[in-house]
Design brief:
The chain has 68 residues and is mainly alpha-helical. Helices cover 47% and strands 0% of the residues. The chain is built from two helices and no strands. It starts with 17 loop residues before the first helix and ends in a 17-residue tail after the last helix. 1% of the residues are buried. The model has no long low-confidence stretch (mean pLDDT 77).
């Protein structure tokens, strides 16, 4: 998903402040569809699993599948 950090901001320099960046992130998140949010969550979980920060959820040592 391509995000434009200046969505809703006529001045691109506005996002260079802490508040401006936070507002741009919020605007970007609110524009995401539920499917895009789910895709982000699945990607974050896969990254966390591969980084070893999530425990294995089954004894075979393989990642859980959607139909398990």
């Amino acid at each position: 998903m391509t995000r434009t950090p200046t969505v809703g901001f006529p001045d691109p320099w506005r996002v260079t402040t802490w508040d401006g960046h936070r507002e741009a992130q919020l605007a970007s998140a609110l524009l995401a569809t539920p499917a895009q949010r789910l895709a982000w969550l699945e990607e974050a979980l896969a990254t966390a699993y591969h980084a070893g920060t999530l425990p294995l959820s089954n004894p075979e040592g393989r990642p859980p599948q959607a139909n398990d």
